[in-house]
Amino acid sequence: MRKPKIVVLGAGYGGLMTVTRLQKALGQDEADIVLVNKNDYHYETTWLHEASAGTLHHDRVRYDIDSVINRSKVEFIRAEVQDIKTDEKKVILNTGEIDYDYLVFALGGESETFGIQGLKEYAFTISNVNAARQIREHIDYQFATYAMETEKKDERLAIVVGGAGFTGIEFLGELVNRVPELCREYDIDYSKVRIYCVEAAPMVLPGFDPELVQYAVALLEKKGVEFKIGTAIKEATPEGIKVAKGEEEMQEIKAGTVVWAAGVRGNAVIEKAGIDNMRGRVKVNLNLTAPGHDNIFVLGDSSLMINEEINRPYPPTAQIAMQQGEVCARNLVKLVKGGEGELETFKPDIKGTVCSLGDDDAIGVVFGKKVTGTKASFMKKMVDNRALLMIGGPSLVLKKGKFNLL
Ligand code: FAD
Ligand code: NAD
Q: Ramachandran region of residue 90, left (φ > 0), alpha (ψ -120 to 50) or beta?
């Protein structure tokens, strides 16, 4: 009998959790497992703000996929996924095509620019290793150029962060530690640097615990961040951004660097494939399959699940993507082995949220308790190490883990 073929798209949190669980649970004679990813490495998306600010080298945030997969059980294809022909059970890659019996879609999300003019051209996004490297090098270049030019353009040193969600705040936490270092490297007076955070909602980290938000804002302000709250970015230009507060007139903020961290959407491949979606995200069935597609599982930032308690979608997080990977793998094993009964249903088990504020500070709610300062920072590093442990075991933690715990 022909073995079923499981194709997993994406070696992020959801994809790698699925593959590492499948390779343990299925024998070579039970299924063909194929993993497709555009790079031969996995990157810790949750650490990209550090690589972007330059507080952590980009090689620290990635590791070889080969170091966590068993090549005797998993075929790895390095390629870019372009489309899926669900009728023909085929995935179209930039290098050819591949057929499947079961498909796991875990290609992550994309930056959401809401059609705002100029963002794609003039703003950076913290979206992958190379994008992070580009942000770090761009900021470095602005400082180096400022140091060289005779007619100093102070706006060159201004950095705008669009969005005070978790990504924006974590990036600011790194920036306020990195920029003073850069100033020392280039003999620039720190008071010449402006770091703005522009947030459309009436508060920083909308929806998060107000006391913890106050802690974060006070710390970042003390280190030089200027918050512009209730102010929306309306346009990005070669000179900076245009913003508006309510009905007030549009204002310009001149800046040499603009980083857009104001939202994510699902993956465009889902839209192209014609699978029912809302901005690239599939409202999955409880067993994680796409409606109308019993053989396609959708995980991570490309999936959408409603938290019935508050009737709002769960925020897309690595925490959820990894938990989905485990359930998806168990469901695939059941399908392959022909186990009895229904597939397992997925319910997120949210253990907490910790937002770093640089290497040595953080805020968070963990198991319902508020934490701040070094204790929270310690917990954040533990969470980071746990992701490595879950996917690659203790050896990966030893190779890539964060041990500067306090
Ligand atoms: P990803 O982990 O993004 O992986 C997708 C993979 O697919 C990547 O390897 C990518 O290269 C590959 N890929 C994409 N498109 C293609 C294609 N067309 N062809 C081939 N391969 C492709 N969440 C938390 O829970 N805790 C945190 O502390 C946290 N911090 C964050 C910090 C930052 C700076 C950011 C940006 C996000 C953070 N998140 C955090 C959110 C979290 O990173 C995402 O929810 C998570 O990465 C989603 O996992 P995923 O498996 O869906 O996709
Ligand atoms: P987000 O959608 O959570 O936040 C984006 C912010 O940008 C919002 O506050 C929004 O009001 C603001 N915004 C939108 N349009 C704007 C505009 N035109 N001008 C100014 N502000 C605007 O996005 P994110 O912060 O990238 O987070 C994405 C996901 O990743 C979330 O689910 C988040 O929970 C997760 N994440 C988690 C952590 C963590 O747990 N430590 C860290 C980073 C990201």
A: beta
Tell me if 318 CB under 6 Å of ligand 2: no
The residues carrying an active-site annotation are 170
CA of 204 to the centre of ligand 2 (A): 10
CA–CA separation, 38 vs 24, rounded Å? 24
252 near 219, Cβ under 8 Å? no
Q: How far apart are the CA of 14 and the centre of ligand 1, in A?
A: 9
233 half-sphere exposure, CB direction, 13 A CA radius: 32
**Intrachain domains 5-38+79-109+266-349 and 119-262 with the same fold:** yes
Each domain of the chain, given as residue ranges in start order, spans 5-38+79-109+266-349, 119-262
Nearest residue by C-alpha to atom 11 in ligand 1: 38
Burial class (CB in 10 A: 0-12, 13-18, 19+), 160: buried
**For 181-218, how does the pLDDT look when each residue is reduced to its tens digit (9 = 90+)?**
999 999 999 999 999 999 999 999 999 999 999 999 99
Question: In terms of pTM, does the model score above 0.90?
Answer: yes
Q: Are 319 and 126 in contact (CB under 8 A)?
A: no
